[in-house]
Write a structure and sequence with these properties.
alpha/beta; five-stranded parallel sheet; three-stranded parallel sheet; 8 helices; 35% helix; globular
Length: 260
């Protein structure tokens, strides 16, 4: 649908698939996969990506130029609110006042599960500092409402641990978050294949952010295309409205009114 667009922080997007830039074998593969995905918002880890800090190294902005994509700097690798806030401010400086950021504060290196106490602290500071904050979070409906109250422009609950590829493990919590949210809800982390992305959209998510599911595939460019189609199909199915689940059959061609 032409008028069915994703709106984040007042900006409208045609694609509901957001992608990352890490884990590709080289910049050429990243460029091809991101292009094939159709994504308009691309996230990059400020602590791990060169976007001008080192003038002698390849610059990621050559692959994802700001005039073509909406950049979403993220705080991957941060384990405290202090580090996350500092990283966002660095991104704003490097990107000429850029305000849209993805906040993630991690709890431990093994699970990469969000540390919600530090996440709340960082979210409050960043919003007060004028940032438009999209926030990675646990699948907690109460936390989602509180982050929205703080002023975050989107909440991004995990579907499963980062990079796990386990798919949507928490669909009932996701539905509760979606039903009560006044800001976009995007699944962030856990998607492994196209059917996972479609399920997220069929549940009513406004979008999906992924990196490993594409970059770690045997053929990343082909998987990027599959994810784009899955997001589109899942959204259309959600808008169309699925039939109720029943324990028993319901004939497609009822016998009532037949001639013999």
């Amino acid at each position: 649908m032409q008028d069915d667009r994703l709106v984040i922080a007042g900006q409208s997007y045609g694609s509901r698939l957001l992608v990352g830039t890490g884990k590709y074998k080289d910049f050429a593969e990243a460029d091809a996969a991101i292009s094939e995905s159709g994504a308009e918002i691309v996230t990059l880890a400020i602590r791990r990506s060169n976007i001008g800090q080192d003038p002698d190294a390849p610059n990621l902005l050559d692959v994802v130029p700001p005039e073509r994509y909406t950049l979403l700097p993220n705080t991957a690798g941060c384990y405290t609110a202090k580090d996350a806030v500092r990283t966002c401010r660095l991104a704003r400086e490097l990107l000429d006042g850029h305000k849209l950021v993805k906040l993630e504060v991690l709890g431990d290196e093994k699970t990469l599960y969000p540390e919600m106490r530090e996440t709340f602290i960082a979210a409050e500071q960043l919003v007060a500092d004028g940032f438009d904050v999209m926030v990675y979070m646990s699948d907690d409906p109460i936390a989602a409402a509180q982050l929205e109250d703080i002023g975050c422009v989107a909440v991004m609950p995990l579907a499963a641990p980062i990079g796990s590829g386990l798919g949507i493990q928490n669909r009932y919590n996701l539905r509760t978050i979606i039903e009560n949210a006044g800001v976009p809800v995007l699944v962030d982390a856990g998607v492994g294949t196209a059917s996972d992305a479609a399920v997220a959209m069929e549940l009513g998510c406004d979008g999906v952010l992924m990196n490993t599911a594409i970059a770690g595939a045997r053929e990343p460019v082909r998987m990027a295309r599959a994810m784009r189609l899955a997001i589109e199909a899942g959204r259309e199915a959600f808008l169309a409205g699925r039939i109720p689940r029943r324990r028993y059959a319901s004939a497609s061609s009822p016998v009532d009114g037949t001639f013999f």
